[in-house]
Amino acid sequence: MMSQPLDQEAFSRATPLCPPATYDAIARLLYARTGINLPAGNSSLVVSRLIKHLRLLGLADFDDYLRHISLPENRNDLNVMISALTTNTTRFYREPYHFEIFVEKLLPDLIQRAKGGERIRLWSAGCSTGEEPYSLAATLLHHWPGLVDFDVRILATDISEPALATAQAARYPRERLEAVPQAVRNVMLSETATGDPMVAMPKLLRDLVTVRYLNFVEPWPTRGPFQAIFCRNVAIYMDDRVQLSVWSGLIDLLAPQGLLFIGHSERLPPSQSDRVTLIERTTFRRP
What we know:
Layout: H1 8-14, H2 20-34, H3 43-56, H4 62-69, H5 75-84, H6 96-115, E1 120-125, H7 131-143, E2 152-158, H8 161-169, E3 171-173, H9 182-188, E4 198-200, H10 203-208, E5 209-213, E6 226-231, H11 240-252, E7 254-262, E8 277-280, E9 283-285
Helix pairs in contact: 7-9
């Protein structure tokens, strides 16, 4: 059957637009709650990411939606909006050179410190759906099989509750592991049957990772210190003021000689440059 031409008028009636004033108000609300900036005039982004939720709520337009999420009793729906407008792009072994630097520049020292009785704490800040902390956990276990005898933990935090639910469940389509080095991938596959399209992270990895909610513009429920912090491609969505707060706070929680890994498009502000030293690409060490 030949498809019929799209009725633009009917489409417009079915999909309400987000007026500029409403878009600006949603952007201000997102910024106040998360420190994340929406690009100016990108109402199509709001429509595409929120229209499903608007319809589920039975609301007529985005003005009604804004009024709804602004009410204290609708905090859960506000959290849904925040999750929808948060970028959760991630993958296993993303930016692999960071894991190589971790193994070469830090892991030998961590092993010695653990054997001396020191606790080892690592943080995946902005972990999204969990691929980053499980990549780190599997890398650790591959290079240090005896770590189960020591006090080693990975904290995985994010602002998106649906993303955190996926990280907590720790089940992923098998094809997502294709970029992982074979030896590390074998660790991840150790409890999954051959041919199973879904991979469940093994218990040893799940036991290493603690998944928690964290919003960078709210009080951080963590004390540190951390011997390594991965915070990659998180601050790029924030303005200079919020970025400074995030980088300063992360460095405060970094242990002496600890490493901070940031995204390849991110830069530390000049005010923090004397607190850490660049040792490799987007990798900084605290003295």
